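Exercise 7. Given the encoded structure of a 230-residue chain, write a plausible sequence.
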């Protein structure tokens, strides 16, 4: 069945993880830094709020930002959104978010630090996830990438046309991702790794080079340029 045909029956929840350690840019927590007239976090949440495929949104925040987040929910009239406290590691925040989703068949997990989520990235991701139960946005690596040992000596040069940079959104059948989060406890840097460890197949679908994660002041400068051109 096509996504269009299933649209009305899909039960989809989005988790926007934004409970990072509160790195500051211009003395403002990077997740609330102004970008094109609204806080950085508001970009991805606005997209989920606007997306008719998504019925619920859980935003994870750390203790310092909890109240700020609750005010933002009211100000921006995010009727689908609730805020929950994140955890120590990213994956702990995702786990908290998963606990808060109610009656979902699909979970979309997205970094709040990636403002340029689009309706297409959500829709294409859900379509791809329906093939195997799991799909992640990714872009082909442009640079040659090296593996090196602790002494800085190259141990391997993987074939570039097989390498992809993983992004979010990462989309999973709800039962699959909750099972993975129960069983896998060692530290990972994305959600797909969890389900890969259990042997599930994860599909890559084309993300976007402008779907950047804002980590440094340089990233923010680039994000401002992207925001102007959207
Ligand atoms: O750690 P990294 O920079 O990859 O973080 C990606 C996203 O995960 C960010 O949006 C960050 O706020 C979120 N995060 C979280 N809880 C943590 C650590 C990171 O929600 N404990």
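Solution.
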């Amino acid at each position: 069945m096509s996504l269009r045909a299933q649209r009305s029956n899909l039960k989809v929840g989005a988790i926007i993880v934004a409970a990072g350690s509160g790195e500051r840019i211009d003395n403002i927590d990077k997740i609330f830094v102004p970008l094109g007239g609204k806080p950085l976090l508001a970009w991805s949440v606005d997209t989920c709020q606007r997306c008719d495929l998504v019925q619920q949104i859980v935003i994870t925040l750390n203790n310092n930002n909890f109240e700020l987040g609750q005010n933002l929910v009211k100000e921006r009239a995010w009727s689908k959104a609730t805020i929950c406290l994140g955890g120590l590691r990213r994956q702990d925040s995702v786990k908290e978010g998963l606990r808060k989703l109610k009656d979902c068949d699909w979970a979309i997990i997205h970094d709040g630090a990636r403002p340029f989520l689009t309706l297409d990235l959500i829709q294409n991701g859900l379509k791809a996830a329906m093939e195997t139960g799991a799909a992640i946005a990714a872009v082909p690596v442009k640079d040659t990438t090296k593996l090196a040992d602790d002494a800085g000596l190259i141990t391997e040069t993987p074939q570039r046309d097989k390498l992809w940079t993983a992004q979010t959104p990462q989309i999973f059948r709800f039962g699959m991702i909750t099972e993975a989060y129960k069983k896998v406890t060692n530290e990972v840097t994305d959600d797909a790794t969890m389900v890969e460890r259990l042997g599930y197949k994860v599909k890559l679908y084309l993300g976007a080079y402008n779907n950047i994660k804002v980590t440094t002041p340089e990233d923010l400068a680039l994000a401002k340029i992207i925001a102007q051109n959207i």
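Remark. The mean pLDDT is 95. Students should compare their own answers with the one above.
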